[in-house]
């Protein structure tokens, strides 16, 4: 079972529907105990970084996420969920994150429209078995105003470009982050979620 | 590069997709969930569902359709029609919609835009504007299905919507809706230049050239259409190829 972590943010059902389509069992939960029972975790997210960290702390989920990460369980952060995996965010001030990955979350500094919303293409980074069916130039659906300035570019499997190159898919051992919405990215997104499901085997 | 979006629109009544000409002569097309699935497979970037009914029983059928679509279709979709309150927003978002579009109710109570943006985030608040050109060349905002002229300037209203927290503008030119004579390129460009949020052009799609024109000269971020897709006059795949050949950034297959 995959635990979809519910801290009051965003459209968790879409993630669950996508997993169900792939035949992957999941449960939407805010119970830290459930995180320990799960084979894998998904940290979704829409909304503000600060609120998310406050809620994760209040629900006692921060320690549970970190400990499960240490146990080697596959963990997938989606959108804001990816950003939460990093050390620090500059969204509306300066906020500490989960620190499972090294880097900072900063705002797009571009003349283009922000948020970066819509379908954008992927650019190949580090070779990996994860998402091996994805080809560069596949399009995926983004909605975000902030992106990760990573300290470890070798962890980036796919980049995208919106005035600057930024990480779209990152992987460090059992930790995966996806900046776009795989659950809303048609076939390409489903392939990535399938890859995540295979990490549980 | 960020792709220009192609968005089929499904007007739903009595649980079926319909398409009217100038909001009249409504005729039946198909099962909304089946059609949504089909469009997703054919390469639609997003979908819009408009509830064109009013009664409560039909509203419940519509919500069920939204739920079923969310289960089966894995691309973003917007729900509009009959959205009047924050509770209406909550209902359709909970049913699985990614964005909610608001039209007449926002004209009557602009603060609902801010309230919804604060509660659910700007990314899911779409301000839909029905507009019509006046004798003096200005575009006015119309409400209640295009029946009432508010006298409000459409460009001003789009900017005001952005200021209040809308995350996207849909501009529907009433005169060209359903008549396939082309999008209203000039007003689309005027609004796109004035706001810093995506602008979706709607109303008037008849040929692939119309899409090209509004996405380039009209500076629209997306183009929405219904009957040309429903009746198979334009295939989305073919349209994307055409746009790609004309150097428009699109998501293909």
From TrEMBL, chain A:
- What InterPro entries does its record include? Class_I_gatase-like, GATASE, Imidazole-glycPsynth_HisH
Q: Does the keyword Amino-acid biosynthesis apply?
A: yes
UniProt entry tagged with the keyword Hydrolase: yes
- The EC code for this enzyme is 4.3.2.10, 3.5.1.2
Instruction: List, alphabetically, the GO terms of the cellular component aspect.
Output: cytoplasm
Provide the GO MF annotations for this entry. Answer: glutaminase activity; imidazoleglycerol-phosphate synthase activity; lyase activity
Location(s), subcellular = Cytoplasm
Which residue ranges does the record assign to the Glutamine amidotransferase domain?
4-196
Per its UniProt record, what PROSITE patterns does this chain match? GATASE_TYPE_1
Query: According to its UniProt record, in which pathway does this protein act?
Result: Amino-acid biosynthesis; L-histidine biosynthesis; L-histidine from 5-phospho-alpha-D-ribose 1-diphosphate: step 5/9
Which reaction is this enzyme known to catalyze?
Answer: L-glutamine + H2O = L-glutamate + NH4(+); 5-[(5-phospho-1-deoxy-D-ribulos-1-ylimino)methylamino]-1-(5-phospho-beta-D-ribosyl)imidazole-4-carboxamide + L-glutamine = D-erythro-1-(imidazol-4-yl)glycerol 3-phosphate + 5-amino-1-(5-phospho-beta-D-ribosyl)imidazole-4-carboxamide + L-glutamate + H(+)
UniProt cross-references to Pfam families, sorted A to Z: GATase
What superkingdom heads the lineage?
Bacteria
Catalytic site positions: 79, 181, 183
UniProt keyword list: Amino-acid biosynthesis, Cytoplasm, Glutamine amidotransferase, Histidine biosynthesis, Hydrolase, Lyase
What Gene Ontology terms for biological process does this UniProt record contain? Answer: L-histidine biosynthetic process
PANTHER family registered for this protein in UniProt? IMIDAZOLE GLYCEROL PHOSPHATE SYNTHASE SUBUNIT HISH
Q: How does it assemble?
A: Heterodimer of HisH and HisF.
Q: What does this protein do?
A: IGPS catalyzes the conversion of PRFAR and glutamine to IGP, AICAR and glutamate. The HisH subunit catalyzes the hydrolysis of glutamine to glutamate and ammonia as part of the synthesis of IGP and AICAR. The resulting ammonia molecule is channeled to the active site of HisF.
- For this entry, the protein name equals Imidazole glycerol phosphate synthase subunit HisH
- Organism in which the protein naturally occurs: Perspicuibacillus lycopersici
From TrEMBL, chain B:
List, alphabetically, the SUPFAM superfamilies matched.
Ribulose-phoshate binding barrel (SSF51366)
Per the UniProt record, one Pfam family is: His_biosynth
The entry's keywords:
Amino-acid biosynthesis, Cytoplasm, Histidine biosynthesis, Lyase
From the Swiss-Prot or TrEMBL record, give the protein name. Imidazole glycerol phosphate synthase subunit HisF
E.C. numbers: 4.3.2.10
InterPro entries of this UniProt entry? Aldolase_TIM, His_biosynth, HisF, IGPS_HisA/HisF, RibuloseP-bd_barrel
Give the chief site where it resides: cytoplasm
Q: Where is the active site?
A: 11, 130
GO MF terms, alphabetically ordered = imidazoleglycerol-phosphate synthase activity; lyase activity
């Amino acid at each position: 079972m995959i635990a979809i972590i519910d801290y009051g943010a965003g459209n968790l059902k879409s993630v669950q529907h996508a997993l169900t389509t792939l035949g992957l069992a999941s449960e939407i939960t805010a119970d830290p105990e459930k995180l320990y029972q799960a084979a894998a975790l998904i940290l979704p997210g829409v909304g503000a970084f600060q609120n998310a960290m406050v809620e994760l702390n209040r629900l006692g989920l921060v320690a549970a996420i970190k400990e499960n990460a240490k146990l080697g369980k596959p963990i997938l952060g989606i959108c804001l969920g990816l950003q939460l995996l990093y050390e620090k965010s500059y969204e509306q001030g300066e906020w500490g994150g989960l620190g499972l990955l090294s880097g900072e979350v900063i705002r797009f500094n571009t003349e283009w429209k922000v948020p970066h919303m819509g379908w954008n293409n992927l650019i190949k980074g580090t070779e990996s078995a994860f998402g091996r069916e994805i080809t560069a130039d596949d399009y995926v659906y983004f909605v975000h105003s902030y992106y990760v300035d990573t300290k470890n570019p070798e962890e980036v499997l796919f980049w995208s470009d919106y005035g600057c190159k930024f990480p779209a898919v990152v992987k460090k051992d059992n930790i995966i982050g996806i900046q776009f919405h795989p659950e809303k990215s048609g076939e390409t997104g489903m392939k990535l979620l399938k890859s995540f499901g295979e990490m549980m085997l | 590069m960020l792709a220009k979006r192609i968005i089929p629109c499904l007007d739903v009544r009595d649980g079926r997709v319909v398409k009217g000409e100038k909001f009249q002569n409504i005729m039946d097309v198909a099962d909304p969930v089946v059609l949504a699935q089909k469009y997703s497979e054919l390469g639609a970037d997003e979908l819009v569902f408009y509830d064109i009914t009013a009664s409560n029983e039909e509203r419940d059928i519509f919500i069920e359709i939204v739920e079923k679509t969310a289960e089966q279709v894995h691309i973003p979709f917007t729900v509009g029609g009959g959205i009047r309150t924050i509770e209406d927003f909550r209902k359709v978002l909970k049913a699985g919609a990614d964005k909610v579009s608001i039209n007449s109710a926002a004209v009557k109570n602009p603060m609902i835009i801010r309230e919804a943006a604060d509660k659910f985030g700007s990314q899911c608040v779409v301000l839909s504007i029905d507009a019509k050109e006046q004798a003096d060349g200005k575009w006015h905002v119309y409400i209640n299905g295009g029946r009432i002229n508010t006298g409000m300037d459409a460009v001003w209203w789009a900017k005001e919507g952005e200021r209040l927290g809308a995350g996207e503008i849909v501009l529907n030119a009433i005169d060209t809706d359903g008549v396939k004579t082309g999008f209203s390129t000039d007003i689309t460009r005027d609004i796109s230049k004035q706001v810093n949020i995506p602008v979706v052009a709607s109303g008037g799609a008849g040929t692939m050239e119309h899409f090209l024109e509004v996405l380039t000269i009209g500076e629209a971020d997306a183009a929405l259409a219904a009957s040309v897709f429903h009746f198979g006059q334009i295939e989305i795949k073919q349209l994307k190829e055409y746009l790609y050949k004309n150097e428009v950034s699109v998501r293909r297959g």
